[in-house]
Amino acid sequence: MNQPRFFIPNRVSEEVLQFLQQYGDVDYRNKEEQMAEEEFLDGLSKADALLCYSRQKINGRILEQAPQLKAVCNIAVGYDNFDLEELTKRGVMATNTPGILTETTADLTFSILMAAARRVAEADHYVKSGQWQEWFPSLMLGKDVFGATIGIIGMGRIGEAVARRAKGFDMDILYHNRSRKTDVEEKLGASYVSLEQLLQQSDYVVVLTPLTDETRKMIGEKELALMKKDAILVNASRGATVDEAALIQALQKKQIAGAALDVYEKEPVDPDNPLLKMPNVVTLPHIGSATKETRGKMAMKAARNAVAAVSGEVPENLLNEEVLQNMK
């Protein structure tokens, strides 16, 4: 009987490789960069399970080249790179890695909020570029975080973790979510409000919702116009949840004070994107979960999901449960 074959097109830890080698053959490409599609499809065509990062698009065209594939396992929480309908139709399980990156991503989210508020990146450049010739009272005046109002759009695991950090800064916590979270309200004193109320009242608007048809460009021209003129927008979810053209326009017109972004509509972001020229915008390269410890745990969870799928078991983090009906 042939052993299952795991395909890993990008770098993971030796621990993950050793774990998978106990259960089958491992086709591992020790690369940081995304491989050429022809090479990727060659590996996928022989695979029973794929472990990949969220930059790898998996759609019907790709799946046509993978006749024996049983599972695609994202090393990520978000899974908008998956065409779940196509995967389910073809009997392929899809999994993600929730929970592990919650605290790490919340750390990053709150850190870029503070960086934008206190103009950290701008001040760092000011010193390093030799512009600091004297001190004066209005030098790099920022915006208080302690005691301010934070509005969190998307009160999932990461949203709640950010709210806990905001509680430590004695912030008033507003949130908007598909459903009310009374436990969060009781634990953290958060207030459930409409999206319009959140935008109008918050000093910091933090977008932490997954990307769906409903949330795509949910923050656009109309929503940005509702925000305070001294408010800051923070996006650590998916770039397409914010209408980037509308955000650029709002910043250029000084409708809002600034932004802190870890994600963009197009990634990597174009070098000529106006956001990169704005000193009041903190720009990071999608590193929300980027710590060695967290990425290692995410890859191991993806590996465990892959092993379960090829062993005839139900993976812990199965996204398309409908596929189980198709397999009966």
Automatic annotation (TrEMBL):
Coiled coil: none
Annotated GO CC locations: cytosol
Protein's name in the database: D-3-phosphoglycerate dehydrogenase
UniProt keywords, alphabetically: Oxidoreductase
Homology family: Belongs to the D-isomer specific 2-hydroxyacid dehydrogenase family.
Pfam families in alphabetical order: 2-Hacid_dh (PF00389), 2-Hacid_dh_C (PF02826)
D-isomer specific 2-hydroxyacid dehydrogenase catalytic domain segment(s): 10-320
Residue span, D-isomer specific 2-hydroxyacid dehydrogenase NAD-binding domain: 111-288
UniProt-recorded Gene Ontology molecular function terms: glyoxylate reductase (NADPH) activity; hydroxypyruvate reductase [NAD(P)H] activity; NAD binding
